Amino acid sequence: MISGGPGTGKTTLGLHFLAAGSDSPALLISMGEAERNIRSDAAAIGLDLDHVKAIDLSPGAQASSGAAYTLLEPWEAEPTDIRARVDEIFPHGPPARVFIDALSQYRHLVPDAFQFRKQVMSLLEYLTRSGSTVLYTAELGSAADEDLQYLGDGILRLDWAPTGRTLSVVKFRGSAFAEGRHTVRLTGRGMQVFERLVPSDHTQAFRSVPLPSGVPELDTLTGGGLERGTVTVISGPTGVGKSTLGVQFMREAARRDERSVVFSFEEKLATLRHRCEQIGIPLTELIASDSLAVEEVEALQYTPDEFAWKVRVEVEDRGARMVMLDSLAGFRQSIQGDDVARHVHALCRYLSNMGVTVLLINEVGTIAGGELRVSDYGISYLADAVLLLRYLELDGELRKTIGVLKKRTGDFEKTLREFEITSTGLRVGEPLHGLRGVLRGVPEMAGESDGR
After folding, report:
1. Which of 103, 311, 396, 408 has the lowest tally of Cβ within 10 angstroms?
2. Nearest Cα to 166, choosing from 145, 136, 195, 188?
């Protein structure tokens, strides 16, 4: 049973089911829309129904013929006998695929729920006993909806909301199924379903090794680099160099012949390309060699399920070994009020299970001073490492610092270093000693406030 309100895609899903069996005949029984309209709609989205025979029992077809219709056996009623019509078209038995659209319409033509259920059971028993797999639609909340739910071996529920369309498998007898709501997209080529990402369903063997950045001082700071299959949050205020730092790790990955992908929710490729090449990172060359891909993502066009599928294609089909989300604020726009931590958790756990190194770019609101926060989204528990970039004012100049706030997979340097973006690349200075208040952005020499 395919259940849902008007316009949720019930008929479209049934037509996909029929079109998928193009190697053998199939049957459409139409009780709502006229056959010609259904075939026209199928052709418009590229579905071939040439192998599909149809029994048109729509109100329009019945009115033009002056006949009524019923599901009763011929000895129980005088009007049209569907079984006889099926046997006439398929004398050797019904085909493997049968789609009835919409079975709930028949409830209006019988005197009570008992007769409706009896006749539907008779038809479904006849078809399934003959070896047919049957899909039928029902309008959600209709008088027939509850009865039909108990007659099907499975229930697919289609819903629509301002946040998007979804499909849920309510039941499926004798088989496991993917629970939860899965994103549905209706396009000019029909229906697309994006399964909800379950990290535990995906795993791949890999060796955990440190991945250096190519900047010796930065590698010293991080204890040799970032480990494969880990999640690193690069956190800091706007303009401090978070994205550039992430691309530096990807440049070094290219030297190891590993592919990386940047999913940019905010910055255009042209802007990122210009910035990187101004400091000696050959982004154009890396893209041309397919060592690095930059995907511009319009967050409002994607649900979390759709975005997860884009990431999966890059990992499973194109072999990406490092993924950067730039940034969490942009990704949040695709959530549209949902819990951002839940979706980031699923995506990061999936990538870690597949041995992919993850870089999450997080922007904090304060430039300097105030409370030190890694993230506003409650995802710091996901991070195996946290690289913290901060501004500070020193000797009347605005400077940048970098430090490691956390690293689960090994030791790291407990100091802060000055961080610069120069025309020849990234420069990480010597550890800053003799200062306190650096994390607040207002450093002072140790002992100054005590008059020493």
Report:
1. 396
2. 195
Q: Is the N-terminal amide bond of 102 cis, ω within 30° of 0?
A: yes
Helices (H) and strands (E) in the chain, counts: 13, 24
What are the tokens at 109? 């033509």
Give the SS3 label for residue 77.
Answer: coil
Per residue, what are the HEC states of 290-303? CCEEEEECCHHHCC
C-alpha 123/C-alpha 77 separation (Å) is 14
Which one, of 99, 137, 186, lies nearest residue 4 by Cα? Answer: 137
Cα–Cα distance for residue pair 208/379, rounded to 1 Å: 22
CATH number for the region 2-195 comes to: 3.40.50.300
- Tokens 């989204």 sit at which residue? 377
Query: What single-letter amino acid sits at 285?
Result: E
Closest Cα partner for 216 from 225, 208, 229? Answer: 225
Q: Is 2-195's fold the same as 210-450's?
A: yes
- The answer to whether 148 and 138 are in contact (CB under 8 A) is yes
Where does residue 247 fall: left (phi above 0), alpha (psi -120 to 50 degrees), or beta otherwise?
alpha
Reported as a single tens digit per residue, the pLDDT across 250-271 is: 999 999 999 999 999 989 999 9
Give the per-residue pLDDT at 355: 97
76: confidence class by pLDDT, cuts 50, 70, 90: very low
Structure-token pair, residue 407: 């690293």
Domain boundaries, the chain: 2-195, 210-450
Q: Please state the separation of Cα 78 from the chain's center in Å.
A: 52
**Distance between CA 372 and CA 98 in Å, rounded?**
62
Quote the Cα angle for 361-363-368, to 5°. 135
Cα separation of 327 and 137, whole Å? Answer: 42
Which of these CATH numbers, 3.40.50.80, 2.60.40.10, 3.40.50.300, 3.30.200.20, describes 210-450?
3.40.50.300
User: Smallest Cα–Cα separation from 57: which of 82, 78, 76?
Assistant: 82
| pLDDT of res. 446 | 66
- Compute the distance between CA of residue 124 and CA of residue 211 in angstroms, rounded to an integer: 60
Phi, psi dihedrals of residue 16, rounded to the nearest 5°: -60, -40
Side chain identity at residue 274, one-letter code? H
pTM of the model: 0.85
Which two tokens mark 274? 């210009």
What is the C-alpha separation between 323 and 243, in angstroms, rounded?
12
Residue 310, exposed/middle/buried by CB under 10 A (0-12, 13-18, 19+)? middle
